[in-house]
Amino acid sequence: MNIPLLDLKAQYATIKDEIDAAVADVFASQYFINGPKVAELEKAVAAYSQCAHACGVSSGSDALLIALMVEGIGAGDEVITTPYTFFATAGAIARVGATPVFVDIDPVTYNIDPEKIPAAITDRTRAIIPVHLYGQMADMTPILDLVKSVNLQRETKNKKPIHLIEDAAQAIGAEYKGHRAGSLGDYGCFSFFPSKNLGGAGDGGMVTCQDKDKAEKLQIFRSHGSRPKYFHKWIGGNFRLDALQAAVLRVKLNHLDAWTAKRQHNAARYNRLFAASGLEIAFTADVDWASYDRPQVVLPSAVQDRHIYNQYVIRVQNRDGLRAFLKDNGIGNEVYYPVSLHMQECFSYLGYGEGDLPQSEQAAQETVALPVYPELNDAMAEQVIEKVKAFLVEQKI
């Protein structure tokens, strides 16, 4: 049987009546921009994410962009982030005119390595953007402590602070020491792209925060910086969330925890099947990453409180060969991400070279995501593992 990487039709079939009714309600109201549906979703996402405020925006990319814009970050400023992430993270930094500064990843979680951040901070650093990749939060305590310490020093010198912006595009509902993604930084940025755990019927995003003044400014900036109408103190953008998307997402939010539990179940089942496969396996937390000695398969480690498994990512040495084999056998898979951002052509002006950020570069060469969506059943999961094993045994990897 063919097994897709993600089956949104299967999801829709379970909530079709709810979705159709919500969409019909929006059409009946003819209220498509902002309005009560968006406000209702904002309130619900804020509560779900343990935040005081939330502002619906047009995409996860624009969520990052507006957070930087609200803080006036731009030309001459530096923003520290990870090179192992979707392009939008660094793209937003460059779009406001600031300079991305890349810090290598922790190979256990694929998130930014907190120990490497202090060396990257300069007087020009205005923000740090940790990415909660694949559904697991970054190690936030040392990052929070670092930002607090630096900002205390800057306050005594009357210098601008460093802002902490969480890229939580893949992590809604993930937790770190009891705190939800998006609740620990100055801002939390979420994506509702259709393939996300909470996905809309098109583009959409959300910015969360705890500060009332920041929340009000977000609302202003998403509508061209206008308040009152036609009066502009700031230059914002057209970052509004459609009411249709808000209505769809509000329905789906009610099901999110059940879907997350199924993803976690599927990840645990994969782990059991791999353990029983006879393959040489290890978890990322158990690998000696300073050496080049690898088992046949490296499985993801859930080291934080709540991993929501936006993706289930394994590592193999002949990743591209495995991908081709799985495709030929009808099994969906994907690489997130094949080129580390510091090696992208558009960022060549930053001066990075091959070998500068080795953990990120190696992950880009070895990782592949397997289907983990909630509707994946036992037979499907068994077939996925069977085909992975068949390739690795045949290739003697």
Description:
The protein has 397 residues and is α/β, with parallel strands linked by helices. The chain has two domains: 8-253, 3-Layer(aba) Sandwich (Aspartate Aminotransferase, domain 2); 256-395, Aspartate Aminotransferase, domain 1 (Alpha-Beta Complex), CATH 3.90.1150. The chain is built from eleven helices and 13 strands. It has helices spanning 8-29, 35-48, 60-70, 88-95, 140-156, 212-221, 243-253, 256-275, 319-328, 358-366, 378-395, and strands spanning 53-57, 78-81, 99-102, 125-129, 163-167, 175-176, 179-180, 187-191, 205-209, 281-283, 297-299, 312-315, 367-370. The strands form four sheets. A seven-stranded mixed beta sheet has the order 1-9-8-5-4-2-3, sandwiched between helices. Helix 8 (256-275) packs parallel to helix 11. The longest helix is centred in the first third of the chain and has 22 residues, at 8-29. It is globular, with a radius of gyration of 21 Å. The two termini are 25 Å apart. The mean pLDDT is 97.
Radius of gyration: 21 Å
Task: Write down the overall mean pLDDT.
Answer: 97
The domain tally reads 2
- What letter string, H or E per element, gives the SSE order? HHEHEHEEHEEEEEHHHEEEHHEH
**H/I helix tally:** 11
Distance between termini?
25 Å
Q: What portion of residues is helical?
A: 25-40%
| The CATH topology of the largest domain | Aspartate Aminotransferase, domain 2
In total, the number of strands is: 13
Report strand %: 5-15%
Side-by-side strand order of the widest sheet:
1-9-8-5-4-2-3
CATH superfamily of the largest domain: Type I PLP-dependent aspartate aminotransferase-like (Major domain)
Low-pLDDT residue spans: none
Largest beta-sheet details: 7 strands, mixed
Structural class: alpha/beta
| CA-based shape | globular
Family: Belongs to the DegT/DnrJ/EryC1 family.
Modified residues (N6-(pyridoxal phosphate)lysine): 196
Organism: Desulfoplanes formicivorans
GO biological process, one term: polysaccharide biosynthetic process
